[in-house]
Design brief:
single chain, 218 residues, alpha/beta, nine-stranded mixed sheet, 27% helix
């Protein structure tokens, strides 16, 4: 049976407990054995991590031990998948570049903060997004520093809210992307400031597909 590990904590404003419970329900429905923990001690044992098929981090603005990050990266490089959303994966550990290199992005800004209405455009024909039409959301619009190696599946157009970034002109910022890190699959969805954002279709369907895809080895 596919083994999934969900670990949550960090900034309460992102409702990590609710997001973790939402993901656990989806993975259980997909037939996976799911372990949920609110501690980063799950990253202490490198061999146990490599035995897991999927890691789902739900942490924001937290700190990870150097060895814990190395263990997580080594597990993904060996074939364990990793998938997450919003600040729960790509604003998890701002001080750890190993984590950022593995996950493929780091949050740097959300002009207008929460409550910005913006469009999400599907830009690939990958099964991760097949059949899903462009849609609008009202939440934080993430501006990310992105690994150029990622495969982008959906984008949002900046600027929507004015600011010092707007003078640079139109920018298509990735919202959904995938990549590989060694033998492991990496999936990220920038939506999910609150549990209801990532828990509502089509954002929810995108996330469900990404979790399942990342859990496959090879």
């Amino acid at each position: 049976m596919t083994q999934a590990l969900i670990t949550w904590g960090g900034w309460d404003g992102h409702e990590p407990d609710k997001v973790a419970a939402l993901f656990a329900g989806w993975l259980d429905q997909a037939g996976m054995a799911v372990r949920v923990t609110d501690s980063l001690a799950c990253f202490d044992d490198p061999e146990a991590l490599k035995a897991v098929d999927l890691i789902v981090p739900v942490w924001t603005m937290s700190e990870i031990g150097k060895d814990q990050a190395v263990n997580a990266c080594a597990a993904v490089a060996a074939g364990t998948g990793i998938a997450g959303c919003h600040g729960g994966m790509c604003d998890a550990f701002r001080a750890n570049v190993d984590w950022q290199f593995m996950t493929g992005a780091q949050w740097v800004a959300h002009p207008g903060n929460d409550g910005v209405r913006y469009g999400v455009r599907i830009v690939s024909a990958d099964p991760l997004v097949a059949g899903i039409a462009d849609f609008e959301v009202e939440t934080e619009q993430y501006y990310l520093h992105i690994d150029p190696a990622v495969r982008v599946h959906a984008v949002t157009d900046f600027p929507v809210t004015d600011g010092p970034h707007a003078v640079n002109g139109p920018v298509a910022m990735p919202v959904v992307f995938s990549k590989f890190y060694g033998a492991g699959r990496v999936y990220y969805n920038a939506l999910g400031h609150k549990a209801d954002v990532i828990g509502t279709d089509p954002a929810a369907e995108l996330m469900r597909r990404g979790l399942i895809w990342a859990a496959r080895r090879g």
